Amino acid sequence: MLRICYCLLAALMICATASVAIPFPTNMDLLVETVASAVNESLGRIEMPADAASAPLLIVAQSKHDANWMVEHLLANRLLMRGFSVTLDSTAAQSASMRLSYRVLDLG
C-alpha cells in the first residue's frame, strides 16, 4: 500500500512539474504572435528612404477596431527597433512627416 502511495505521489509531482515548466500559450499569446508575425513580414517588405528617420513616422489606423492598440504597439515597437522615431499623435507630427496607415480586417 505504501508503495502505491509513493507511485501516485511521484506521478502527481511529475505532472505538476511538467505543467509548470511548459505553460500552454493563452489565446492572447497566440493572437500577439500572429499579429507580430504579420507586422514583421509587412515591415520587412517596406523600403524606406534614408532621410525618413529624420522626422517622426506617424502611425494611423484607417478604421476603428478593438485590436488597433495591439497593432499600433507592435508597429511602433518594430519601427523603433529599426531606428525610426515614431508618433501616434497626429498633432505632434510635422506636415512633411511620413505616415504609415494600417487597417485591421475581420476575416470571418
- Average pLDDT metric: 79
Q: Sheet bearing the most strands, described?
A: 3 strands, parallel
Q: Regions with pLDDT < 50 over 5+ consecutive residues?
A: none
Structural classification: mainly alpha
- What is the subunit organization of this protein? single chain
Overall geometric form: elongated
Radius of gyration based on Cα positions: 23 Å
Number of strands: 3
Proportion of β residues?
Answer: 5-15%
Helix content: 40-55%
What is the number of helices?
A: 3
**Helix-strand pattern:** HHEHEE
Give the domain tally: 1
**Distance between the terminal alpha carbons, to the nearest Å?**
56 Å
Characterization of the model:
The chain has 108 residues and is mainly alpha-helical. It has one domain (25-102). 49% of the residues lie in helices and 10% in strands. It contains 3 helices and 3 strands; from the N terminus they run H-H-E-H-E-E. It has helices at residues 2-21, 27-45, 68-81; strands at 57-61, 86-87, 99-102. A 3-stranded parallel β-sheet has the order 2-1-3, with helices on one face. The longest helix is centred in the N-terminal third of the chain and has 20 residues, at 2-21. It starts with a helix and ends in a 6-residue tail after the last strand.
